[in-house]
């Protein structure tokens, strides 16, 4: 990327006030193991920080600004509300069932729910 690498981009996104929970995907032409590990470590750090934020919210029982669902998450959530299986949702939008599981996990975390049944109540 001209002017800024992916690591700097992730640092800038993470520094934004309402950026918690924004999913980040790294695509790179670099094939060095150290570069891949550094990117994964940064994503894991972001995930740990988000998890800590939600754990703290539950302990305090105080409202916390929940990051909005991305358009992708919203689409998956709407299909899940129709009680479609992960495989059916994956087929509907042309992705893998593993990707759907990951996206639903993010939706559940953001909405502070634990199942499709709870999601159906939204």
Distance between the termini: 40 Å
The backbone outline, from C-alpha atoms, is globular
State the order of secondary-structure elements, H for helix, E for strand: HHHHHH
How much β-strand is present in the residues? under 5%
How many helices? The count is 6
What kind of sheet is the major sheet?
none
Total of domains: 2
**Averaged pLDDT:** 78
Identify low-pLDDT runs: none
By DSSP, the count of extended strands is 0
Helical percentage: 55-70%
Rg from C-alpha positions?
Answer: 16 Å
Tell me the structural class: mainly alpha
How would you characterize this protein structure?
There is one protein chain. By secondary structure, the protein is mainly α. The chain folds into two domains: 6-60; 71-120, Winged helix-like DNA-binding domain superfamily/Winged helix DNA-binding domain (Arc Repressor Mutant, subunit A, Orthogonal Bundle). It is 63% helix and 0% strand. The protein is built from six helices and no strands. The chain has helices at residues 6-15, 33-60, 71-81, 86-93, 97-111, 116-120. Helix 4 (86-93) packs across helix 5. The chain is globular. The model has no long low-confidence stretch (mean pLDDT 78).
Topology:
Layout: H1 6-15, H2 33-60, H3 71-81, H4 86-93, H5 97-111, H6 116-120
Helix pairs in contact: 1-2, 3-5, 4-5
Features:
2 domains, 122 residues, mainly alpha
Brief sketch in words of this structure:
With 122 residues, the protein is mainly alpha-helical. The chain has helices spanning 6-15, 33-60, 71-81, 86-93, 97-111, 116-120. 9% of the residues are buried.
């Amino acid at each position: 990327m001209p002017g800024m690498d992916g690591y700097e981009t992730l640092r800038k996104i993470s520094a934004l006030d309402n950026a918690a929970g924004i999913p980040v995907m790294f695509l790179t032409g670099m094939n060095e193991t150290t570069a891949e590990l550094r990117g994964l470590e940064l994503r894991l750090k972001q995930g740990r920080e988000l998890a800590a934020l939600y754990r703290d919210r539950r302990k305090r029982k105080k409202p916390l600004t929940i990051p909005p669902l991305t358009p992708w998450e919203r689409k998956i959530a709407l299909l899940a509300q129709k009680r479609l299986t992960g495989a059916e949702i994956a087929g509907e939008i042309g992705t893998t069932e593993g990707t759907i599981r990951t996206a639903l996990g993010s939706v559940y975390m953001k909405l502070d729910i634990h199942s499709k049944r709870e999601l159906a109540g939204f």
